[in-house]
């Protein structure tokens, strides 16, 4: 690994003992940042998952489950990158500013990782219970699948989201604010089951290389959505960056339904989320 990553214990997610039926994470401090007059992010104004009004297109038991986990202070204090990435309009707004997205990632990374991972595993198991969202999950409810994949992908996206470059800047902050290469942020959606668009050519940087190395270590776990998206993405990146740029030796993709959003760009996935909120 070339970059600076947070210390962590690599543990296999126990959110589900079965493969998903549909795939439906630093040593140097950050360099000085230019002051952003709009950067007033505080702990109370931090982006939160599912921060828009949820649709009524839920079973009552599933709606109650969402209300329960979204009001759980242990969960909200984790500021989970894996759930913010696809479901938070506040996170989308913060991503427009290097300062604000850095502040958000600071909050995401300065948590008790083990406690947060345990919480995500617990909710990942609970969401598919008959008394919660089993019916909605079986019906491929977009918000339920996004929540489920976000719970599952907490560890790989914590490690990738907290990865810094040699200057101490978050790799994700570099990627999401790079307006000349908007595709640089697309690999971060792989752990959520979103395939890399076929024409995407992310910048061949050390950040990309080390982010994919993190993802590679999870891709052999068939309970992780990235087991369905990593292989094709690694091959595609190696086409643009060289045959050995990233590791292609993850476990072969398993059968079954493709990843959610397969073939969709992350931006289109976001639009689908917003449309679902309005239903």
UniProtKB/TrEMBL annotation:
Q: Where is this region: Disordered?
A: 1-42
Q: InterPro entries given for it?
A: DUF7729 (IPR056146)
Residues forming the DUF7729 domain are 46-249
**Pfam families listed in its UniProt record:** DUF7729
Compositionally biased residues, Low complexity: 17-42
Keyword set, alphabetical order: Membrane, Transmembrane, Transmembrane helix
Q: Where is the composition biased (Basic and acidic residues)?
A: 1-10
* Highest taxon of source: Eukaryota
Protein name per UniProt: DUF7729 domain-containing protein
Instruction: Give the species this sequence originates from.
Output: Mytilinidion resinicola
Lineage of the organism: Eukaryota, Fungi, Dikarya, Ascomycota, Pezizomycotina
